[in-house]
């Protein structure tokens, strides 16, 4: 097995763990973490596939950087919503 196959296998395992956590976890924080884990797996696949060619594809690297910024801002927004939901009196 080459290094590319190992990275793709690790990404598939991360995505599977994240999917399991998303389906199984009833807590909102656990679901946010699971979504972040699935996003990290997708980023790993994109970087791995871009490194297969020589020179490495810069477009996929730029998409991963943009995706990281979007993922961080979406996570911050989701955590703010969870904090507001948990702080409201019922």
What are the salient characteristics of this protein?
90 residues; single chain; 83% helix
Protein architecture, described:
It is built from 3 helices and no strands. It has 90 residues and is mainly alpha-helical. Helix 2 runs antiparallel to helix 3. The mean pLDDT is 92.
Largest sheet: none
What is the strand content?
Answer: under 5%
Radius of gyration over all CA atoms, rounded: 16 Å
Give the integer mean of the pLDDT values: 92
Instruction: Give the uncertain stretches in residue-range form.
Output: none
- What structural class should be given to the helix and strand makeup? mainly alpha
Number of helices: 3
Number of extended strands:
0
Please give the structural blueprint.
Blueprint: H1 3-24, H2 28-50, H3 58-87
In short:
The protein has 90 residues and is mainly alpha-helical.
